[in-house]
Specification:
Length: 276
Amino acid sequence: MKKRLSVLVSLALTAMLALTGCASANNEKTEESNLFRVGMEAGYPPFNWTQGDDSNGAVAIEGSSEYAGGYDVEIAKRIAEGLGKELVIVKTEWDGLVPALTSGKIDAIIAGMSPTAERKKSIDFSDNYYNSQLVLVVKNNGPYANAKTLADFKGAKVTAQLNTFHYSVIDQIEGVNKQEAMDNFPAMRVALESGVIDAYVSERPEAVSAQAANSNFKIIELTDGFETNPEDTAIAVGLKKNSELTEKINEILAGISAEEQTEIMDNAIKNQPAAQ
């Protein structure tokens, strides 16, 4: 009798543990579904940057004591609110963003990323949430400070960020001294300041940001300019193929007018930390 009772008790305990485990798993699943996990470099001001506190609406970076701010963060906040989810910023190197998305580590890429044909082979994109133009950043007391055309950069040491279309357009400068691509914009700013390079290719918001952060820098807006595809200068949210979020995110983005986009960008440029 005791043996039979013991077996019954054991079975009851096993069932209780199983139910507890299921409840715990369901709670974790529910909690996870309430999160909107966004990947970005947090190193491409004014689109995104890293700072030490939550001032000006910055959001905590997962697994870090630091915070992310910038235009992308503000757009991510709007999207998360529209989805009814809690925003989580996952700081990720540029080359790791697409793998992080396709592997499920993040739900979206909001990182100043252009919806190029090559990227569309592996991920989908939302409608655009910003459109920009390409410029060059130089030293304001350097030999290219008065450049106006691509031809003026003949012989110049020019670079751009690795794995971006910015780097490929350098080939449009006849006789350019194309330098090795660099991992990120902070590295390019240091290289420009130190004279390792004469110029780097950027989108106008980042260039305005660089000039605001360092009075030695100058933006060159070319009279002829680089030839680009519209998709290259557009910025969109990267999403998994056939993501159920795409339609809803497009609805949210449609509610942000071009005037609001400009206002958000202007505030991002104004609020970026000086060190950025």
